[in-house]
Design brief:
about 300 residues; about 80% helix; mainly alpha; about 0% strand; 12 helices
Length: about 300
């Protein structure tokens, strides 16, 4: 066994699963902000990126000053900017709109179709092979997610825009899956820190442009509560997990990241119960157990991947 290699794989697994849990706080903060401040989706999304911006500018500056850093080609710049737009502008916009009409638990379950899309893109377009462990983990996690989703649908109280909100979350999952695959392809060539910083700066530019075109700035009333939610969304649910997920993809690959992040719905459902008062139903408990088994399998695979063949 190569100890250093084992350390890298284990670290990649831990970073990825922690990033997924941090990301899962997003729906909680968004729902609380909607309830407490009556802010609209675009304004809240703009505040999220505004408070995130200094961190990404700093990261981009540090990455640019590193000795021996290779300049990006025009094609690489184009792809990084495209991934930023798809990953954190369009997908976040669809997600925030959808969260106005569906519960946090259901949002995360619908959103979690994206690992399936990402793995399918990698498998059928880029011709990558799935290991038996990955296939088994996918089956378990999606049976779990499907079980919990069915229970949520069966017990939900449908509002007039429930299906519209669900559709917005679905579109978010589609756009985010392209970002996930693109990141897996670009992060090694560009560098995790530099890639994340540039992609998020591109997303911020798109979000700010959207806000300025649709919202009079003078109409925004900045309260301490709204600022607090914006800062929490920026640091806890955006900056930290975005860097962690990019590092995780670099260390263990986008397919493994796609499956490990299945812990996200579990985390969101539990947080939604404690912080939003959403009910945990039996189907969610069963689905949670299956998802955890799938995540453990991927963690086990990450560990044994360092054993000599």
């Amino acid at each position: 066994m190569n100890p250093s290699s084992n350390k890298i794989n284990t670290l990649g697994f831990l970073i990825t699963i922690s990033g997924a849990i941090f990301f899962s706080t997003k729906a909680i903060f968004v729902k609380l902000a909607f309830q407490d401040t009556k802010v609209d989706a675009v304004t809240l999304l703009c505040l999220r990126m505004l408070f995130s911006l200094p961190f990404y500018i700093g990261a981009a500056w540090i990455a640019h000053r590193k000795e021996g850093v290779v300049q990006l080609t025009r094609k690489q710049w184009l792809w990084v900017l495209t991934m930023g737009i798809f990953g954190y502008y369009l997908s976040s916009l669809f997600d925030f709109i959808g969260l106005q009409y569906v519960s946090a638990g259901l949002e995360r379950l619908i959103l979690f179709l994206y690992p399936t899309f990402a793995v399918l893109i990698n498998t059928f377009y880029f011709k990558t092979k799935l290991s038996r462990i990955q296939v088994l983990a996918l089956v378990l996690t999606y049976i779990g997610i499907g079980t919990a989703y069915w229970g949520e649908i069966r017990s939900a109280q449908y509002g007039p825009q429930f299906f519209y909100g669900s559709f917005m979350i679905f579109v978010c999952a589609v756009t985010y899956s392209f970002y996930l695959v693109g990141t897996g392809r670009l992060v090694n060539a560009v560098g995790a820190t530099r890639y994340t910083a540039y992609a998020m700066l591109a997303a911020s530019a798109g979000i700010f442009t959207h806000f300025l075109l649709t919202h009079p700035v003078q109409n925004v009333v900045m309260t301490s509560s709204l600022a607090g939610y914006g800062i929490a969304l920026a640091i806890i649910a955006t900056v930290l997990p975005s860097f962690m997920m990019s590092v995780g993809m670099k260390k263990i690959g986008s397919n493994n990241v796609a499956i490990i992040t299945s812990i996200g719905p579990v985390s969101t459902i539990l947080q939604a119960h404690f912080f939003l008062g959403e009910t945990i139903i039996p189907e969610q408990i069963l689905g949670t157990a299956l998802v955890i088994v799938g995540v453990i399998l991927i963690g086990w695979q990450s560990k044994i991947a360092t054993e000599p063949s």
